[in-house]
UniProtKB/TrEMBL annotation:
The lineage of its organism: Bacteria, Bacillati, Actinomycetota, Actinomycetota incertae sedis, Candidatus Hakubellales. It comes from the Bacteria. InterPro entries: ParB/Sulfiredoxin_sf. It comes from Candidatus Hakubella thermalkaliphila. This is ParB/Sulfiredoxin domain-containing protein.
Amino acid sequence: MKRLWELYRHLIVHTQLSPAICRLVNDRILLFDGQHKSAAQIWAGRKEIECKVYINPDVRVLKETNLTAHDKLRQMPFFTSVLINK
């Protein structure tokens, strides 16, 4: 819940940098990555949420890719000074 509050406060002012990731199943969009930021944006009153939607994906490969992206390949944190220098 703490993370959701932090995202809520952040997204009231700032934009979302990366889209939520979804897949299309039987004319329904199923969200599988980005649930917290999507919930925070809805809570903050946003009427639209940026999403990347996969159509007919291999679900097994998509899940493996997502798990790897959040584990072995996750983005490294950086110091504010590095960002300022860019």
